[in-house]
Amino acid sequence: MQSHNNRDGNKSDAQSPEERLVRFMLGHMVAGLAAGFVFGGALIATNVANLRTLLFASSDGWLFAVLFFMGLSVTFGSLAMGVAIMLDGKPRKH
Question: Which pTM does this prediction carry?
Fold first, then answer.
């Protein structure tokens, strides 16, 4: 976090609107990435559609795991970023 000079020339620790927006978006992205990894781990752990069997039976299981988890993390990260864009950090009045 950077210090900014206010009107009086004193430094303040307040974030600019751009910094708050970036922090808001990054927070959502990290949450989406984590959700993708957790969801992928749950699918592998419960052996849905025999994914765990395929993973361990294949000689290229590591490649499957990398592509599987990266695909899920990108999908969930993008979803979370889309939610952040729709919310844009502003409370709504009903």
Answer: 0.74
